[in-house]
TrEMBL record:
Residues 5-345 form the FAD-binding domain. GO terms for biological process: 3-(3-hydroxy)phenylpropionate catabolic process. Gene3D superfamilies: D-Amino Acid Oxidase, subunit A, domain 2 (3.30.9.10), FAD/NAD(P)-binding domain (3.50.50.60). Keywords: Oxidoreductase. This is Bifunctional 3-(3-hydroxy-phenyl)propionate/3-hydroxycinnamic acid hydroxylase. InterPro entries: FAD-bd (IPR002938), FAD/NAD-bd_sf (IPR036188), PheA/TfdB_FAD_monoxygenase (IPR050631). Pfam families: FAD_binding_3. GO terms for molecular function: 3-(3-hydroxyphenyl)propionate hydroxylase activity; FAD binding. It comes from Raineyella fluvialis.
Length: 581
């Protein structure tokens, strides 16, 4: 038996399910194969950031996920005496959501899984194991083994245009690709203990940099408490199955450590590794299959979701004939640097927490106390300014000063135009996500920006109708691509703009002046936004035609195909009746 599809995804974890939702939304057929008989029902990740929540919003699943989260999850690093070394409590919602959330991964993963029922062309097949991969010029053929309820197996083939391995750190897909998996795997082991009916009942997170035994204590939604403890070299991993040993670990944390409703206990080792490439021909990898990082910054789950967000629209563009295959090379180009930066940060943070030498711990605590005296240093950690922000300097970007495609200088100062020399913000917005404030339109009040712009390409201008800045043929071309034209304007001018521009552009009222400020300090009048809300190009209004064509080049657009295509904006199909066996 042979089954055909557009994209085969190996692994029904959060990354595979997120990618499948994007493909379904964009009208691309996909099959997800998972070797387990069902979704994993115990928590692994515990932190969900604002970038990931923006992705969940894009998938139309925010309301389904919110009940399983704790917003504004504060993290405190404390020493062995209980003194706070640093607090991590970032404020503001630049991307439309609280910067940090605690969450229950099984329930959020299940929301992603249930979301696939909206798309007729997407299905998940449990108890299906990828056993072999063969590739030719036009497709990938995967040999899949299906384990039946009676334990017997049947083997068949799935032929797809592309295969994406999302099977985790031991990914068979990555091994088949033959790429290096570079980095470190420290020998330190940790035991995770998850407990129902939280015996502490306190919110938030404590990282215990205690030389006696480093630990983590996390309050999670639905009365779940997680502890993590470092194991010493002379403590075998099997010891964690001993109730008395676990009770001893917890005796100083709870009134009675012998009376706990334990969900699970597991031993894990931290890894800091990244693949040398996320693509080989028609085979790609994402999530832990592409990079592994320690848990300290809670970025493993989020980094995988970033991969899926970056890759989903690119696969759709190629498969719909809007871009040629070279677009997929930008996936590795854009995601590698940020994934490396998150790995490095997580490894560094671990080195701060783990010392068991009391002299080293004393020096760390003394240095931290001295730094906390300085307001700027304290703010740097409290507002999480140390967290790397994804910025794409090459890929589907256009340089702001030269309008050259494929690369973008982070700095704007200087250049041929006075507005650029006068700009307040010297860093270009190109390659960064645009902000997401609350806005008004003719049909919606106080809504998040993405909900009125949609999830495909957008050309937006401040105070102008972008269709009047482009040649008529370019306007037609962009609409054939399924793109949206948007006018950002002060809320006070929205009624006028709706009469003047409303027939050709979606008019968005800036009720908080956040968008006005964003355009003002960057000295730009128009932006071209990618489907993942990153800025592909930013320019003065009169330069929009040049920026548009440079963006098409950076996205490897196949203009002949696009010119004859019908509009292909993101679509949501009726609920699927496809069996998820």
């Amino acid at each position: 038996m042979t089954v055909t599809t557009d994209v085969l995804i190996a692994g029904a974890g959060p990354v595979g399910l997120t990618l499948a939702n994007f493909l379904g939304k964009y009208g691309v057929r996909a099959i997800v194969v998972e070797q387990l008989p069902s979704l994993i029902d115990y928590p692994r990740g515990v932190g969900l950031d604002d970038e990931s929540f923006r992705t969940i919003q894009s998938l139309g699943l925010a309301e389904e996920v919110l009940p399983f989260t704790v917003p504004q999850h504060v993290m405190r690093l404390v020493n062995g005496h209980g003194d706070v070394i640093l607090t991590n409590d970032p404020k503001g919602e630049p991307y439309g959501w609280t910067r940090k959330h605690g969450f229950l991964q099984p329930e959020v993963d299940n929301a992603l899984y249930e979301g696939l029922a909206r798309y007729q062309g997407v299905e998940v097949r449990f108890a299906h194991t990828l056993t072999d991969i063969a590739e030719d010029a036009d497709s990938v053929t995967a040999t899949v083994e299906h384990t039946l309820e009676d334990g017997s197996t049947e083997t068949f083939e799935i032929v797809a245009k592309y295969l994406v391995g999302c099977e985790g750190g031991k990914s068979p897909t990555r091994k088949w690709m033959g790429v290096n998996f570079e980095g470190k795997s420290p020998s330190t082991r940790w035991v995770v203990v998850d407990v129902n009916n939280d015996p502490l009942g306190t919110p938030n997170v404590y990282l215990g940099a205690d030389p006696a035994r480093p630990y983590v204590s996390i309050g999670l939604p639905h009365a779940v408490r997680r502890w993590e403890f470092m194991l010493f070299d002379d403590e075998p991993s099997e010891k964690v199955e001993d109730d008395a040993f676990v009770a001893e670990l917890l005796k100083d944390h709870v009134p009675d450590s012998t009376k706990l409703d334990v969900i699970r206990r597991r031993v894990f080792t931290h890894h800091g590794r990244i693949a040398s490439s996320f693509r080989k021909g028609r085979v790609l990898i994402a999530g832990d299959a592409a990079h592994l990082m320690p848990v300290w910054m809670g970025q493993g789950w989020n980094s995988g979701v970033r991969d899926a967000t970056n890759l989903g629209w690119k696969l759709a563009s190629v498969l719909k004939g809007h871009s040629d295959d070279r677009l997929l090379d930008t996936y590795t180009t854009e995601r590698t640097d940020h994934a490396k930066a998150m790995i490095d940060l997580s490894m560094t943070f671990g080195s701060i927490i783990k010392p068991t030498d009391r002299k080293i711990a004393f020096l760390r605590d003394t240095a931290a106390s001295a730094m906390n005296v300085l307001p700027q240093v304290k703010e740097y950690f409290t507002d999480m300014k140390f967290k790397p922000i994804p910025r794409y300097s090459s890929g589907v970007v256009v340089d702001q000063k030269t309008l050259a495609p494929g690369r973008a200088d982070a700095k704007v100062g200087g250049g041929r135009f006075i507005p650029f020399r006068n700009t307040v913000e010297k860093n270009s917005p190109v390659g960064l996500q645009i902000i997401q404030p609350r806005v008004n339109t003719a049909t919606a009040t106080n809504v998040r920006l993405d909900d009125v712009m949609g999830d495909w390409w957008t050309i937006a201008a401040w105070g102008n109708d972008p269709t009047r800045l482009l040649d008529p043929e370019d306007v037609k071309l962009f609409r054939r691509l399924g793109g949206t034209f948007v006018t950002f304007i002060s809320e006070t001018q929205r009624p006028w703009a709706e009469q003047e521009f409303g027939y050709s552009s979606t008019v968005v009222g800036d009720t908080t002046n956040a968008l006005k400020t964003w355009f003002d300090v960057r000295s730009v009048g128009a932006v071209i936004l990618r489907p993942d809300h990153f800025v592909a190009a930013a320019c003065l209004a009169q330069d929009l035609p040049k920026a548009f064509h440079a963006t098409l080049e950076a996205a490897h657009a196949t203009l002949a195909t696009v010119s004859s295509a019908t509009p292909t904006a993101p679509v949501e199909t009726t609920p699927s009746t496809t069996a998820r066996a």
